[in-house]
Design brief:
By secondary structure, the protein is an alpha/beta fold. The chain has helices at about 15-25, 45-60, 80-90, 100-110, 140-155, 175-185; strands at about 35-40, 60-65, 165-170, 195-200. Strands 1-4-3-2 form a 4-stranded parallel sheet, sandwiched between helices. Helix 6 (about 175-185) links the parallel strand 3 and strand 4 (about 195-200). Helix 1 (about 15-25) packs across helix 2 (about 45-60) and helix 3 (about 80-90) runs parallel beside helix 5. The longest helix has 20 residues, at about 140-155. The relative contact order is 0.20.
Length: about 200
């Protein structure tokens, strides 16, 4: 099982306290659910975001990260799903019986579990039934996946800690990922105080 602790090395920064505090404030529960760090490449957006999320993880938050690499190819949703998988792994580390936690999540997903058979790097895939149902029609696949991911985030909300997701270089995300995030962020079933998104990207010229 992937350990979220391995994903968050030391990111202590010096001389950036004003920026760190601004990001901490932006991620408070009373604030909007999306915080965006913008700026040219190499100015430290990712390091800043990771430092704040590392602090949050040390204080009990469930954190995850995904990145859109330069020249990103492949499935547009992979960084988003990867961030959610990281947060699930982080939550499982809080449990005495992580495998039991996965079974509980599979039960919470119910009939939506089969949608996860073809996504992620492994953790979410394990939640799908051994013999998944017939795949949904392509025109409804994103809607079903959004419902399944929303259910995962609701399950994470049961830990009573905030879920913080970092999507690095979000400006490179495609239309499918943007629509998926919009669905999740506007889902009324998700507690706006518990599920938070932090993205960093370069401004588009």
């Amino acid at each position: 099982m992937k350990s979220s602790a391995q994903s968050w090395g030391s990111s202590r920064l010096h001389g950036r306290e004003a920026e760190l505090q601004a990001l901490r404030l932006a991620l408070r529960p009373a604030e909007p659910r999306v915080a965006v760090a913008r700026g040219p490449a190499g100015v430290g957006k990712t390091a800043l975001a990771r430092a704040v999320l590392e602090e949050a993880r040390e204080n009990g938050a469930l954190v995850g990260a995904g990145k859109y690499d330069e020249g990103h190819v492949g499935r547009d949703l992979e960084p988003v799903i990867g961030a959610i998988e990281d947060a699930v792994a982080c939550g499982l580390e809080h449990l005495f019986d992580p495998e039991g936690g996965l079974r509980d999540l599979a039960r919470a997903l119910g009939s939506e579990a089969h949608v996860l058979a073809g996504v992620g790097s492994g953790l979410l895939r394990t939640l799908a039934p051994v013999e998944p149902s017939r795949p949904p029609p392509s025109e409804g696949a994103d809607e079903q996946l959004a419902r399944a991911l929303s259910q995962v985030l609701q399950w994470l909300g049961g830990f009573g800690a905030p879920t913080l997701l970092l999507i690095d270089d979000w400006g490179r995300a495609g239309l499918q990922a943007r629509r998926m995030l919009r669905r999740l962020l506007t889902d009324p079933r998700l507690d706006r105080k518990s599920t938070r998104l932090n993205s960093s990207h370069m401004p588009v010229s």
